[in-house]
Amino acid sequence: MDAAMAQTLFLASCLFCLLILFIRKAMHQRDKLPPGPTPLPLIGNLLLIHTNGTGKGLMKMSEKYGPVFRLYIGPEMAVVLSGYEVVKEALIDQAEVFNGRGEMETFNQVLQGFGITFSNGVTWRQTRQFSIMTLRDFGVGKRGIEERIQEEAQFLVEAFRKTKELPFDPTFFFSQAASNVICSIVFGNRFDYDDKEFHHLLQMINETFCLISSIWGQLFDIFSSIMKKLPGPHNGIRSCLQVLEEYIVKKVKQNQETLDPSSPQDFIDSFLIKMEQEKQNSSSHFHMKNLIATVLTLFFAGTETVSTTLRYGFLILLKYPEFEERLHEEIDHVIGQQRRPCLEDRNKMPYTNAMIHEIQRFSDLLPLSLPHQVTEDTHLRGYMIPKGTRIIPLLHSVLRDPTQFSDPDSVNPGHFLDEKGNFKKSDAFMPFSAGKRTCPGEGLARMELFLFFVSILQNFSLKSYTPPKDIDLSPAMSSFGNLPHFYELTLVPR
């Protein structure tokens, strides 16, 4: 054998050994990954995922693969966390590692990674800290915002009186009331219920939420580069969000013209003042794009979450009139018919508090939560999760965890009451998510839900022309969000 051939054989042997080592290493790393179904090229495990009832389907899948399993959503690997214990371990016990935000191109095609919800890193931390402090400055968590909600509740009650006991769709009544609370903070004013521009904005929010929750929205998030080039309803998401964006740009310009740095009138003013303070800082995260994205997400979330929960809640009360009767009894006993409800009443009304919690638990507004992302290589339950992996904390599995709630698929306010009838907290109550990415508006939303529910039930009894047994509480749409079936409500003055 000549020298050249010997050298060739030596190199080939080295390459073969390196290839074996590479394959063994790859297999070893794969063995460390969470278990999961075998993916198909390009589409991954999409054929196994229910397009409606996604949360329920993934929870069922966890029975086979365990509480931590991998799933290929198209070509991208995600890790699903199912059940209260493992979601707590990730989002709370390892909060710093699991606090990244996974991408949702449906939103980011307009937000571009800015704002309080879909940003990451320093941008997210600074925006979140500023937003929480500014919301507090404008009364969130204080008496000031309570009075605004009480006032809005009275506007809502008066609007309901005008329905004159005729059946009506409550969707936009609830949207207007919930939206006016956040509008008074971010824009410095509320809107009349007959304001056409306001109604159009709310329609855009409602349509966006419905489209993102549809199969078209899901496909857009998974195959965004392809779907952007195709016609279809998914293109309406961008159009709707741009209408909201254009309105916010208009409001920002108005604020710039009237801005008094010594006396900010709303959230936009405060952000503009912060931008001016940091204008010499070239790396500042307080700039116009971030302002518009932050206001858009506050406006959107502050409107849709509370209004959809109210809509689901009153459907539940139509289904179970015995719950409504108990609520009326407690409201009459604690508050009566004349005095307007206040937050201090909540501690004296355990059944009402429990019922509202149960409505939030059962309605399960965001069953998959918003996607998270691990910020570094990490381990969970003995599995390795690579940096940048999308995490799906299955809130549906937490709110329906049979180890935390007896008979979790049934509506039962007793889930939040002890044997003496006192209100009982549950660590598994996570409709606002958990950890560092908990919804910053949680406190505001809980205030609104209590004051709106109680104000309406103080003044009205509910009536439906559909027999309770025929009322369907299953979601009309269930993927990104859970949306109730359409129904009409009739309110009878008490």
Automatic annotation (TrEMBL):
A GO term from the CC aspect: endoplasmic reticulum membrane
Residue sites binding heme per the record: C439
Topology relative to the membrane: Peripheral membrane protein
UniProt cross-references to InterPro entries, sorted A to Z: Cyt_P450, Cyt_P450_CS, Cyt_P450_E_grp-I, Cyt_P450_E_grp-I_CYP2A-like, Cyt_P450_sf, Cytochrome_P450_fam2
GO BP terms, alphabetized: epoxygenase P450 pathway; xenobiotic metabolic process
Compartments in which it is found: Endoplasmic reticulum membrane; Microsome membrane
Source species, domain of life: Eukaryota
GO molecular function, one term: iron ion binding
Cofactor: heme
CDD domains reported in the protein's UniProt record: CYP2
Coiled coil: none
Assigned keywords, A-Z: Endoplasmic reticulum, Heme, Iron, Membrane, Metal-binding, Microsome, Monooxygenase, Oxidoreductase, Transmembrane, Transmembrane helix
A Pfam family hit: p450
Residue intervals passing through the bilayer: 6-23
Family: Belongs to the cytochrome P450 family.
Protein name as it appears in the record: Cytochrome P450 2G1-like
Organism annotation: Geotrypetes seraphini (Gaboon caecilian)
